[in-house]
Amino acid sequence: MQQDDVITSAAATTTATKQTDAPPERLVRHCFWKYPVLACVFFVVLLVLAALVGSPNWPRDTIASVSQQDPGGATLAFTQELAGDSTSTQNATEYGMGNPGDVFAHNPLHQAAWFLGATVQAALDQYDVASPQQRVAWAKHYEAALATITPMSSGGAMSVTPSPAYSKIATLQGDFGPIPVMVAADLRLAQNGYLEQYLQTVDAGHAYHLTNIWLYDHPAMLNTAVQQGLTDDQWGMIKERGFSVGPWYLIVPAIIHVKFPGGENGPGFILWNLLFAFFLLFVVPLVPGIRDLPRYLKFYRFIYHYPVEGELDKPLFRERHGATHGGPEIVAEGGD
Fold first, then answer.
1. What is the pTM of this model?
2. What does the domain layout of the chain look like in residue ranges?
3. Which of 73, 149, 311, 315 is the most buried (most CB within 10 A)?
């Protein structure tokens, strides 16, 4: 009687073992043929994302190309740098570059004065002997005059910044001092590629950085960003020119930065990211129910499946798996 109970208990245990859904106790078959199929599916998804939410494959701007395409904008950029109210001037301390008027407009002219002609040299001499206040006054007068030949900006929060009409610049009159001659010479240096080469010569380690700073002084880069949806509040953290999708690893902080309340400032951005990290590190792997979601959703079916009844009765499978999964070990014919 006792022996019958043992047999019954063993049978019940065997039945329970067969009914479990835990992979370590139940033989599974890995479906390696699905791996290339999944890779193709993910590739198609990537292409769709690139087409719908990716950034345009826009060629990299250079000082020469931008100055040639929009000389009016370049004229405005040089004037604002000399006047001390350009974007780079407002962030000069952060950039660690010093006075942008000297870096981009004044010093390059001195370096190239020998081939720019007597008129430019005379303008530089006049500028050099003037007081800092007088220099800024001349530049601001010229900037105000440029505003009179600049179209009105389009309305809305994301508006395009217009450039002065270059064809009308020669008609401007006022107390500009040597500024028009200097700015026109700077434009020549920018258009023929000299300015970018100059930046590489005087500060090779930061030439790329300085070039980008000047490009942001020019309205063309901001206008392109607005038109192509690349500004900061249009997913600018991940939609960078030159990348069809953008740095995918920044998608989470980008969403936090743009969409979450307080995510646009430093403390809020850090706190939201810490909360997301806490969710990934502790909630997902440790909280019952959430950690079991992949099993509930049967994600394992993408890589393996449980054999159907009779599938493992084939001699090949019995020979390969029988000994390790509770069945008798079968030696193939001809074996030792």
1. 0.66
2. 63-234
3. 73
